[in-house]
């Protein structure tokens, strides 16, 4: 369906892999800033393909609409746009996201022999200082992936252009992936469905219980570079006041050992992730998070 990449790196690409020191620092801080992993041509192609997508082009569409799908449509107006499964619906974007170098960097950081794509979201943050939807409150991705067995998943934030604080870039809470969670907090509800003040207070309380200070670090990302963060790292973003839209993709990745698990919320109800309605089933009849149509292998060490 997607075509295949030769899972091999050039000598030049190998120079871009995280060093041993980088891997150690990622383990301590919960985030990593890469070198230039995408060429200017590739970021230009991401931009043009996203414009075609917003204009209505689809190479394929999901067979069913999952219940919690983030999917901006023109009728939603000039809010911040999120479109899940962009790697599936837009072949050109999917091809670039499957570049082996990205998966190889993630594999080094996660210390796993295989990286599979988990989810990808196309993001468009308009330049509007008073647009409420532009503010993304503090959250950790792992909270929304409780149907996953892995504690080692990670995300690459991939802007299509230089991205700094004035654009409302992604901002990390340094070292927060090592914090113990607050018992009893139902963090499975998406941050868009929760009160921002509630999330701010949870972050402050969690930091306090861990004896940690809140050290926030905005990611200043040159075009073609990307930030990576651990699935338990708290992060968020502020307003875009740059005068032009912030365009990016969040590429979520899973390590080799990740698979589906049953998870019950505090109220006893079963949690379902969007994949559970679209991916194939395993021999045991459970959702297969290794389905190559939606979760292709990005990197596998030889």
Helical proportion, percent range = 10-25%
Overall geometry comes to globular
CATH topology: Jelly Rolls
Structural class: alpha+beta
What is the alpha-carbon Rg in Å? 18 Å
Low-confidence stretches: 1-5
N-to-C CA distance? 23 Å
Quote the average pLDDT: 91
CATH architecture: Sandwich
Q: How many domains? A: 1
How many extended strands? Answer: 11
Structure description:
With 302 residues, the chain is α+β, with helices and mostly antiparallel strands. The protein has one domain (11-300): Jelly Rolls (Sandwich). The chain has helices at 11-14, 20-29, 40-54, 86-89, 91-97, 100-110, 196-209; strands at 31-33, 81-84, 114-125, 136-139, 154-159, 170-173, 216-218, 227-230, 235-237, 246-255, 297-300. The longest helix has 15 residues, at 40-54. The chain is globular and about 50 Å long.
């Amino acid at each position: 369906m997607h075509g295949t990449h030769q899972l091999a790196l050039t000598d030049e690409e190998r120079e871009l892999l995280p060093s041993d020191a980088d891997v150690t620092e990622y383990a301590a801080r919960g985030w990593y800033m890469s070198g230039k992993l995408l060429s200017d041509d590739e970021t230009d192609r991401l931009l043009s393909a996203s414009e075609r997508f917003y204009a209505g082009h689809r190479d394929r569409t999901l067979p069913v609409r999952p219940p919690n799908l983030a999917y901006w449509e023109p009728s939603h107006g000039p809010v911040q746009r999120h479109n899940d499964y962009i790697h599936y619906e837009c072949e050109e974007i999917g091809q670039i996201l499957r570049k082996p170098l990205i998966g190889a960097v993630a594999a080094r950081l996660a210390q796993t022999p295989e990286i599979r794509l988990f989810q990808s979201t196309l993001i468009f943050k308009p330049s509007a200082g008073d647009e409420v939807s532009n503010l993304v409150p503090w959250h950790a991705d792992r909270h929304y992936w409780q149907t996953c067995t892995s504690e080692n998943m990670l995300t690459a934030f991939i802007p299509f252009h230089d991205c700094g604080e004035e654009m409302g870039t992604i901002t990390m809470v340094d070292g927060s992936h090592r914090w113990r969670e607050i018992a009893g907090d139902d963090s499975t509800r998406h941050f868009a469905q929760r009160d921002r003040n509630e999330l701010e207070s949870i972050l402050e309380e969690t930091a306090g219980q861990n004896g940690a200070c809140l050290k926030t670090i905005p990611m200043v990302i040159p075009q073609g570079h990307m930030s990576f963060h651990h699935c338990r790292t708290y992060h968020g973003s502020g307003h875009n006041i740059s005068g032009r839209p912030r365009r990016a993709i969040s590429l979520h990745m899973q390590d080799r050992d990740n698979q589906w698990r049953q998870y019950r919320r505090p109220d006893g109800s079963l949690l379902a992730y969007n994949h559970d309605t679209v991916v194939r089933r395993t021999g045991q009849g459970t959702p297969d998070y290794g389905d190559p149509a939606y979760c292709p292998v990005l990197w596998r060490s030889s």
